[in-house]
Amino acid sequence: MTPRIAVAGWYGSDNLGDELILRSLADAISVRGGEPAAISIDPLATGREHGIAAISHRHPLQSLSLRNALTGCDAMVAAGGLVQSETSPWNIPFHMSRLLAAPSGLPAAALGLGVGDVAGPTARRLARAALRRLERIVVRDSESARRLHQWGIAPGTVIEGADPVMDLEPAPVAAGDTMCVTLRPPNRRGLGTAAHKAARAAPSAATLEAMARAVAAASDAAGLPVRFVTFQASRDSELHSALADRLGGGEVVTPSAGEVLSEVGRSRVVVTMRYHAAIAALLHGRPAVLLDSSPKMAALAAEAGGWAPLLHPRDLASPADDRRPCSLAAAVTDALARQERSGQACHLLKQRLSANHAALDELIANAA
Question: How far apart are the C-alpha atoms of 109 and 32, rounded to whole Å?
Answer without folding.
Answer: 16
